[in-house]
Amino acid sequence: MKHFTCVHDIGDLEVAVKEAFEVKKTPFRWDTLGKNKTMLLIFFDSSLRTRLSTQKAALNLGMNAIVLDVNQGAWKLETERGVVMDGDKPEHILEAIPVMGCYCDVIGVRSFARFESKDTDYREVLLNQFIKYSGKPVVSMEAATRHPLQSFADLITIEEYKKTARPRVVLTWAPHPRALPQAVPNSFAEWMNAAGYDFVITHPEGYELDPAFVGKATVEYDQRKAFEGADFIYAKNWAAYAGSSYGKVLSRDRAWTVDAEKMALTNNAYFMHCLPVRRNMIVTDDVIESPQSLVIPEAANRVVSAQTVIKRILSTEIAI
Ligand code: AN0
Ligand code: CP
Q1: 47, 50, 112: residue to mutate for ligand 1 pocket, most atoms within 8 A of CB
Q2: Is there a single domain that holds both residue 162 and residue 189?
Q3: Helix pair 183-195, 13-25: axis angle to 10 deg
Q4: Which site from 127, 181, 227, 245 is most exposed, i.e. has the minimal number of CB atoms within 10 Å?
Q5: Run means of pLDDT, 10 residues per run, the chain, 320 residues
């Protein structure tokens, strides 16, 4: 594997999950694979889990890890080509990226959708610039349209806890005060479709995701109906995608908050969320604290997904 930006980069999912379970069982088995190699993690946006779990994954493989928060101490970066740089940005991304590439062997990038232009976000302009100009393998640590390390950890978690071969997995929109990207739900949908689960998406009208990510999922506007018979409830907020509403908050309706009464409609479903989560907006205290809540094991599996991905990249590099 050269780069990791979406489900298609990982190939056969059964093979990948099997490999992830091996990594989970014996995390230090490959602790010389990354000897004298450096993992550089670039954050344009905040993070707790991705920052810690990806570093931990690199360390388990014997790599060195360097973390840069672009907005704290680095030069402000211009991203548009052709701009006369007489403003507040002293450096251009087209120099910054190859420079960063000089200092590492694998590069992780986090940069959320900016919601300024749907076209720029959905063309993944920044992520593709890293792929084009860094000269190094690039791992998405949540880009504008996808969060594949999260989705891979979600898949691993579902495979660990599922009680039937093809569980019913429900992705539900839930309210949040701010406009959040579609990256997590898009990516989750992409991976659930690829896994071939019985997959349902529920959200208020106006919150339709890009059909390219919805794929073969059933879309159900009645949240209670969607919850019936669910084995896994995956909650997430996202801002509108469609038309001129792109990036807007259309509803903060707490009737969509995941609570115990709705969980009682399910097949004793597990509750999942990528975190960070706003309690009593997205999910009530009692549901997130219940024995059915998988939010902590799910976060723990972020080390496993990252380590499996970086291990594959290092193995490919060595093979070349
Ligand atoms: C981000 C999002 O919704 O994409 C990161 C989630 C992993 N969440 C927030 O900004 C709260
Ligand atoms: N789930 C996740 O990616 O969390 P962070 O934003 O804290 O990295």
Answers
A1: 112
A2: yes
A3: 110
A4: 245
A5: 97 98 98 98 98 98 98 92 96 97 98 97 97 98 98 99 98 98 98 98 98 98 98 99 97 98 98 98 98 98 99 84
Considering only CA atoms, which residue is closest to atom 11 of ligand 1? 276
Give the bridge partners for 99, in sequence order.
Answer: none
Measured distance CA(293)–CA(77) in Å, rounded: 40
Q: For ligand 2, atom 4, which residue shows the shortest CA distance?
A: 49
Q: Based on the fold, state whether residues 155 and 199 are members of the same structural domain.
A: yes
226 and 104 in a single domain? The answer is no
141 lines ligand 1 (CB under 6 A): no
Here the CATH number for the domain that contains residue 112 is 3.40.50.1370
Q: Does residue 247 sit in the same domain as residue 307? A: no
Domain membership of residue 112 (yes or no) is: yes
3-state secondary structure 189-243: HHHHHHHCCEEEEECCCCCCCCHHHHCCCEEECCHHHHHCCCCEEEEECCCCCCH
Question: How far apart (Å, rounded) are the C-alpha atoms in residues 10 and 151?
Answer: 12
Specify the length of the chain in residues: 320
Same domain, 309 and 214: no
> In ligand 1, which atom is closest to the CA atom of 184?
4
Q: How far is CA 16 from the centre of its chain?
A: 17
Domain extent for 91: 7-146+302-319
Q: Is 180 in the pocket of ligand 1 (CB under 6 A)?
A: yes
